[in-house]
TrEMBL record, chain B:
InterPro entries: Gly_reductase_pB_sua/b (IPR015417). It comes from the Bacteria. It comes from Anaerovorax odorimutans. This is Glycine/sarcosine/betaine reductase component B subunit. The keyword Oxidoreductase applies. Keywords: Oxidoreductase. It holds the Pfam family Gly_reductase.
């Protein structure tokens, strides 16, 4: 197994805080903590190169450095990335997380890192790597390297990596399928019998507790309010220019009526939502996005202004966590546009 | 009072082929292709073709609308009471079954939520239909047909084809007989029932009970034998991964499991069919009545498997809350969507849930020698995207596009965890 190791300017022995703007460089073989790690890893696993970069330099240029990191990993024919350990060093943790993200997203490579539980890089980037908890400072280096080494060896052995509780890494928050010994139907009846008999059982899917959203106070004067109408019903412009997916949609898009739907107060669009018969929405887009009525209300002065654009996504099969993420991003944009009220149509 | 007993006379189909006339010989189903096509004629179709797809074939069927097992009552007239044949003998007497084969309907897409069956390769393990000898109806429609009319025509064609093929079993000696009767339990076993959700959402999301559109139904008590005998028919374009095909109603895994343990571990009291409507008032009407039925049956517990995802979870939670409130234990069965909040509705009483797997997981399905239907449609199907087709002809899709991959009746062994 070929490993590329990422460390910062401090562990690369370039300097401390004053050298945090040191640009990215590559060194052959292991360096600094990598040397101790290499001796733990043994001969089957080789750290073939070490990337050293100043923390500030990496965090501030993460996007621009993406290509460099990808090229290094490709040149080294890396099977795995190890980043840090970063302990409680915030910017180092962020840089390690960024490198892991690039490795995982661009090349599908697994990554291993070590961070203290309060390191901000941990929460932000846990999805992209197996992050092992460490103590809060480099005094814990020995234990941290031992844990990283054990984990890397396990990955190298091809053994199945089990859940976070069993293996000790921070939960990444990725759902993964696996095959049980019994069918769902068998497990269902087993569980029902245990529950009826008062025996212990463990649910396979703990239910979430939804965050309660407190409604904003009512708009005092609708005749002065700027109102937007938007939908999760997949009413996209003809031709679906941004390729919104019929199910598990990964994006929302902003479209103005003038450019995309045939004029202000017009919804000439197309339904791409996979969860209902599109005939009626295709026939008349106002059935999904009722701008005809809202334009009338605007003319009558009942609302101050109808916003001349909309936001569209497809709600079909969308996880509520993703929906909440979209909601947060949308709310920011609405606030920036000084919109007072939003009508959301679902299907 | 006489008890209901249904005898399924099963003939195992090991191979299918075309021939001069319809026949069934030593496990080989011979199909008169021309005769079948003529039988299926409908002015809606501009063309009907039939292809065969067998286990292990390098073949992909896309987009799949329904899958149906050929079954017929001994009288030779009834396969789907209320649609093809009469009601009176449903769930009792003798029914001939061609096991190991199925009718699969494909052709021009009706709605987005149609699916894929791969007969070999990595996609095959996610669908029970890859292990069947499939008789595939490829239909094309004339211009100007609306999706709802198209769906109805394809649904009928599939049912008629299954009925037609099952006739070959008449007068033949079965390989074995399965008898289904809910014999009186000798011991004092836990009394259990199944809340059987029936899609009734409209806009291409409908099932049919005895030929009646589920949108016109109130909850009903069903004997489990009735679903084995064609009482429920699929007409539903919900996501392919969690849809129940007609085959899944005829071979409902959770119903079979309850039957298997009846008289040994449980006292199976029956099915409560609950139409799943989109509106809140209808949900309340149906769920509260269904729970009253469960109390009337005097059950200790119910299984609540889901069909579809998202909206029906409101019904699931409603049933769960009201059952638990009345001392009826519940276990739900569903496929989670997402990580932190994997369901669209929740309840503190929902402490027992079976996870049948995550349909959002991506798989790459390799190119196949034979595409039955039209692979281009993957771009518009739920679980596919514009970018789904790779240069080498493989497709990158989520499991939601594979027929029955995360079916809520718990057919497969799949589950999921968060790592």
């Amino acid at each position: 197994m070929r490993v590329v190791h990422y460390i910062n300017q401090f562990f690369g022995q370039i300097g401390g805080e004053e050298m945090a703007h040191h640009p990215l460089e590559v060194r052959k073989g292991p360096f600094g903590p990598g040397q101790a790690l290499q001796s733990l890893l043994g001969e089957d696993i080789q750290i073939t190169a070490t990337i050293v970069c100043g923390d500030n330099y990496f965090v501030e240029n993460a996007e621009a450095l993406q290509e460099d990191v990808v090229n290094i990993l490709k040149d080294e024919k890396a099977d795995l990335l190890v980043a840090g350990p970063a302990f409680n060093a915030g910017r180092y943790g962020m840089a390690c997380g960024q490198v892991c993200k690039i490795s995982y997203e661009e090349l599908g490579l697994e990554a291993v890192s070590g961070m203290y539980e309060e390191n901000p890089g941990l929460e932000l980037f846990r999805k992209f790597a197996y992050i092992l908890p460490t103590g809060n400072s480099a005094r814990n280096m020995k234990d941290a390297l031992k844990n990283i080494s054990d984990f890397v060896k396990k990955l190298n052995s091809g053994e199945e990596i089990k859940g976070p509780e069993e293996e000790g890494y921070v939960q990444r928050g990725i759902r993964k399928n696996y095959f049980e010994e019994k069918t769902g139907a068998e497990r269902c009846l087993d569980m029902l019998l245990k529950k009826i008999k008062g025996e212990e059982f463990e649910t396979e899917l703990p239910m979430p507790v939804f965050e309660k959203v407190v409604p904003s106070p009512a708009i005092k004067d609708m005749s002065k309010a700027k109102i937007i109408v938007m939908t999760s019903g997949g009413m996209v412009p003809p031709g679906n220019p941004d390729h919104l997916e019929a199910c598990n949609c990964t994006k929302f898009r902003r479209y103005d009526y003038e450019t995309y739907y045939g004029g202000k107060g017009v919804t000439k669009g197309k339904v791409v939502h996979g969860g209902y018969d599109p005939v009626y929405g295709d026939e008349d887009g106002n059935r999904i996005l009722p701008v005809d009525m809202l334009t009338e209300l605007e003319k009558e002065g009942r609302i101050g202004e109808l916003c001349d654009f909309t936001y569209v996504t497809v709600g079909n099969g969308m996880g509520t966590d993703q929906a909440a993420e979209f909601g947060d991003a949308l709310a920011e944009e609405l606030k920036r546009e000084e919109i007072q009220g939003a009508i959301l149509t679902s299907t | 009072m006489s008890k209901m007993q249904l005898d399924l006379d099963v003939i195992e189909i090991k191979d299918v082929c075309f021939g001069e006339k319809d026949d069934l010989d030593h496990g080989t189903l011979v199909i008169d292709k021309k005769g079948l096509i003529e039988y299926l004629a409908d002015p809606v179709f501009s063309k009907i073709d039939i292809e065969l797809a067998k286990p292990g074939d390098s073949a992909r069927i896309i987009p799949v609308k329904d899958v149906i097992e050929p079954r017929i009552k001994e009288d030779g007239k009834t396969s789907f009471p209320g649609i093809i044949g009469d009601y009176t003998e449903c769930g009792e007497g003798t029914t001939k079954v061609l096991r190991g084969c199925a009718v699969v309907s494909t052709g021009t897409i009706v709605g987005f939520q149609e699916g894929i069956i791969d007969m070999s390769g990595p996609g095959a393990r996610y669908t029970r239909y890859s292990s069947l000898n499939n008789i595939v109806l490829v239909t094309e429609i004339i211009e100007g047909i609306k999706p709802a009319e198209h769906e109805a025509a394809v649904r009928m064609a599939g049912l008629k084809a299954a009925h037609y093929l099952a006739k070959s079993a008449l007068g033949k000696t079965p390989d074995y007989r399965e008898s289904y009767a809910l014999a009186e339990s000798k011991e004092n076993l836990p009394k259990v029932a199944i809340m059987y959700m029936i899609m009734a959402q409209g806009l291409l999301h409908d099932n049919y009970v005895y030929g009646v559109d589920a949108k016109r139904l109130h909850p009903a008590l069903l004997h489990p034998n009735e679903v084995f005998d064609g009482a429920i028919v699929n007409g539903c374009c919900v996501v392919a991964g969690d849809k129940y095909t007609t085959y899944d109603h005829q071979n409902n895994s959770i119903v079979q499991e309850f039957y298997k343990r009846h008289g040994k571990e449980i006292d199976f009291k029956g099915l409560i069919a609950v139409p799943t409507y989109p509106g809140l008032a209808d949900k309340r009407r149906c769920c509260s009545s269904a729970v009253r039925m469960a109390r009337l049956l005097g059950v200790d517990g119910v299984a609540i498997p889901e069909e579809g995802g998202g909206n029906p979870e409101a019904d699931l939670m409603m049933l769960c809350r009201q059952c638990e409130k009345n001392g009826i234990k519940t276990v739900m069965m569903l496929g989670p969507d997402g990580v932190e909040e994997p369901v669209a509705d929740t309840a503190p009483e929902a402490d027992a849930v079976i996870n049948v797997g995550d349909c959002n997981e991506f798989v790459v399905l390799p190119p196949m020698e034979r595409i039955i239907g039209d692979q281009e449609q993957v771009k518009y199907m739920s679980g596919g995207a514009e970018e789904s087709i790779n240069e080498d002809g493989s497709i990158r899709v989520s499991l939601s596009i594979i027929m029955g991959s995360v079916i809520g009746q718990g057919t497969l062994k799949m589950s999921s965890y968060v790592y």
